[in-house]
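Module 6 notes. Inverse folding takes a fixed backbone as the condition and produces residue identities as the prediction. Think of it as a translation problem where the source language is geometry and the target language is the twenty amino acids. Below is one complete input and output pair. Work through it position by position during the lab.
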């Protein structure tokens, strides 16, 4: 049966029992609720090839009395009579979260004022496309398990040390930086071992990719107990680091623009970086960072190498696997001593793995001796969802 037929059947009260209508016969709008008044609807009814992170939008002509505002309920799902997914929304837009590719979704909006429902749209439908962009909407949040360890064998059984922690990434709000650049503010709180990080990343989607325009990281380090690890310095690619967390931040080029004193962007914007190139497809490759005068010491490329379904504590996800490449020696050849992999799905970054080989480890109490180990740094998604700033999302 076609979708119009499904929608039409969902609202029929058969003539033979029409007299029951006033006592509870449901229509898509509910008993006695006007079916008009919601307009400027996006996506339009029957739209196809929609983004997997589409934002539903609408307008209500009567929504002009801000002193006594209108609120909205959103019904959304793959059923022809979609369930309530969010209520008490003040904004006239809603991002349901990362959707499945090539899937038909049904939705409608209901408006109410002073506790009285005043209008409802008909049930509409759209179909998603195959590709996706990174999910960006205020209130979205991702929780990760973070682990760093060093090992001396390929089986990762003989560990020199291991640190664990947690990383929380939350989109605070959209804003404008440098007076001209529209971005989303990602607030990051991270702990790994005894180190604590907080900071902001400012990024946004464009037609050809997800760009990072600036970021700031504030670091607070507390002494690590001697029973866990003696003080060390690490050397890699001619650079020295106080911890493995600093080493991997450097490989991600995070240290290049980090400002430990100022939590806000500097007055002049640095060069933007393309974290992911759109459309994401097997074999596509792009430059993430070029060598720059303001601190980035080498070129980094990324390439989509395969698709893979992975299972993590947050669920099962169909991912693009994106490999990182470093030209550490700036000789035009990709270095074999370091590897990185992002597992990216419509829901966001699901997993990240970095490997750095032959890192020199020198302890403070034996500064003349250096041992060499391989290092691993990994983030694994444990939970994700939305923390609504206004309105409430209904648990599904």
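Target side of the pair, the amino acids:
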């Amino acid at each position: 049966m076609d979708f119009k037929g499904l929608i039409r059947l969902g609202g029929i009260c058969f003539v033979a029992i029409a007299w029951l209508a006033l006592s509870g016969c449901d229509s898509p709008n509910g008993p006695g609720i006007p079916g008009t008044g919601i307009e400027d609807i996006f996506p339009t009814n029957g739209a196809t090839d929609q983004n997997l992170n589409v934002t539903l939008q609408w307008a209500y002509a009567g929504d002009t009395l801000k002193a006594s505002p209108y609120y909205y309920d959103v019904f959304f799902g793959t059923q022809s009579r979609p369930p309530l997914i969010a209520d008490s929304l003040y904004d006239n837009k809603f991002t349901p979260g990362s959707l499945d590719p090539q899937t038909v979704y049904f939705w409608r909006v209901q408006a109410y004022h002073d506790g009285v429902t005043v209008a409802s749209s008909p049930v509409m439908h759209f179909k998603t496309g195959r590709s996706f962009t990174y999910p960006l909407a205020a209130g979205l949040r991702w929780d990760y398990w973070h682990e760093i360890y060093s090992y001396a064998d390929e089986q990762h059984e003989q560990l020199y040390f291991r640190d664990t922690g947690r990383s929380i990434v939350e989109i605070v709000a959209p804003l404008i930086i440098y007076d001209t650049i529209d971005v989303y503010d990602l607030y990051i709180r991270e702990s790994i071992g005894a180190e604590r990080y907080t900071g902001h990343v400012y990024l946004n989607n464009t037609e050809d990719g997800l760009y990072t325009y600036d970021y700031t990281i504030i670091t607070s380090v507390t002494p690590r107990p001697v029973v866990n690890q003696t003080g060390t310095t690490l050397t890699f690619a001619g650079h020295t680091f106080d911890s493995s967390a600093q080493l991997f931040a450097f490989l991600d080029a995070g240290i290049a623009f980090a400002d430990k004193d100022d939590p806000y962007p500097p007055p002049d914007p640095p060069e933007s970086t393309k974290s992911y190139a759109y459309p994401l497809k097997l074999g596509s490759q792009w430059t993430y960072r070029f060598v720059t005068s303001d601190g980035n010491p080498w070129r980094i490329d990324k390439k989509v190498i395969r698709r893979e379904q992975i299972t993590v504590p947050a669920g099962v996800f169909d991912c693009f696997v994106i490999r990182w490449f470093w030209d550490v020696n700036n000789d035009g050849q990709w270095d074999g001593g370091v590897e990185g992999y992002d597992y990216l799905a419509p829901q966001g970054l699901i997993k990240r793995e970095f490997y750095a080989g032959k890192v020199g480890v020198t302890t403070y109490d034996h500064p003349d001796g250096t041992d060499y180990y391989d290092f691993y740094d990994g983030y694994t998604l444990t939970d994700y969802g939305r923390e609504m700033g206004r309105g409430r999302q209904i648990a599904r």
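Reference fact for the lab report: Confidence is low (pLDDT under 50) at residues 1-34, 221-229, 256-263, 388-396.
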